[in-house]
Design goal:
This is Ig-like domain (Group 2). The chain is mainly beta. Helix content is 10%, strand content 33%. The chain is elongated and about 175 Å long.
Amino acid sequence: MKKFFSAIAVLTAFAMVAVSCNDDDTKDEDIPVTEIKVTPATGSVVAGTTLTLKAEILPENATDKNVKWKSRDENVATVDEATGVVTGVTEGEAVIMALCGGKNGQAVITVTPAPIRVEKIELSKTELALFVGKTEKLTYTINPENATNQEAAWDSSDKTVATIADDGTVTALAEGTTDITLTIDEKTVTCKVTVSSPAIEGITIPYLSAIQGNTVTMTAAGFKAGDKVKIEAVAGDEYSAEADVANVTAQNATFELPAAASRDRSYKLTVLRGGVKQAEAFLHPDDQFVAIPYHLGYYLTGEDEVVPADPSMRANEEGVTRRGYMPGKIVDYNEETKEFRVWKKDAALAGFTAATLDLTYATGVTSIKPLTDLYGPLTSVNRVYVANSSLESLDMTQFPNATLLHAWGDAGSGLNKIASINFGTYTDDEHACKVTQMYLSSQSLTGTIDLRNCIALNELKLDGNQLEGINLGTANGDSSDKDRMLVVYSISAKNNKLKEIDISNCGRLRQLWLDGNKIERARLLNNALGEGYNSQRPDSWFPYMYILKNKEDFTITWATAADAEGRERHIDVEHYWYRNLSPANKNENGEKPGYDKWVNNSPVIQALKDGFTVTDWSYALEGYDGGGVKIKHTHASIDDLCPAEQDAE
């Protein structure tokens, strides 16, 4: 029995233990993880930097909350197993997983390259000086050149002094200083800008004819309040006034022209600041001016007057005197066009009063037409010197009172370019050319030079040109003949291309030199009226040809038969040629200084011996004083002279 109860007790105890165990199992049962949410689900991190991920375990009462983090590509990004801190390694994309209770959540992380930071900025200038109204662009470089952030931010510490545009252009507004700053990627550099008023340059002013009222606008930078303008007339009666500068802006200013100032003249304007000259400009009446090329204008102005700034423009004038024919104050020199400009209204007030026009060695001067375009005929000039200039033509009608013309050139110098000269056409003595002395040797004259209007000509030199003819006229006293007898005393035309010469219109000719030509035909007659000198009849000289009396005064090169190429070679000789063959020959003063020895071998005799034919006019001996008749003889040889021509006086 005792054993029975013991067995029951053991069983009972076992049962209680079993029941007790079943109660504990129910109380400690695990709640499984159903989901893991990772935030952010997607993200970006720069290589070398970190991003912290968070994991949310669902349900919230899940038994297992022990999260472990893992990266699927640790070459791109790594993650701290316990904290979820992701570190970017290199550019790419990596999946980061959160592991817990047999579940996982994940985030996709993009790793971007680490930025290249700006280490240094260099400005093109750290100090800048500008005039009011001017601009200048600042440039910069950054180091390294491939920095990631290159966005530039400009700023000015005082925008009333200068502003800065996004492209780095600084605009100066007013006098003062300001700091221009440039910031890129937290780096900053500075340029100190100083703004001042500029020197006043290149003032432009409208013509008076275009200005309504008396307000004159001067366009240029640099004017300041308080400036004054001195106003001076450049020609004619003196006029001077002073006006205040007003309405000053960065680009212009104005002044009031006094009502007393004529609008038909030019004014020189001098801008004064505290009495000190700042700039100079001209106010002109209209657009009617003559542009005078630099080289001509240089000689016309004086030594201390207008001088171009460009020294190359003055190179070939070195050592040559500037003539000062035109007052420098009426000349406006334009550096851009290299021209002197003179207004016609000013020229009319000033006039051209020089008695001499001297452009000797004025190299570069190819024409004086601009001068005559400005003043018209230069009536004050009585002497014209243009020797060794670069003139290509000459109009002597523009010098109606000139008595002397020197226009020779030095052979081989290149300063002998005159190819044509106009002496005008004879109408009457008052309007004829008055030149008495004319030197035109070694120029470039070609064709025929017409001297019929040169009724006062006394001495003529034409050596060393390319002339084929000299027109001296054919006056013979006939009322139908419009030519006027010339009173020229001496002609030298050596070394040209002359084939003919006619001096029958030269009643006083005493010297003739034609060496170096090839003369085929010559009229050595004298068509004077035979009355001797008469002041009322300048063509009434004795009809003698005195050049045949003196070997020193008459030289000529005759064409050979070969030169003439079959053309007749012929000479017409004066009325009293026979006297030149006489051993009793005398000069016009009745003297016999060896002429009787020369006449038998004179150039005409030589031509006759060389095959020329010679026609002469003479008088029959009988009745000489009583008006003997003229007889005409043509000779083909020296042996063909008639008795009258062989007879001695």
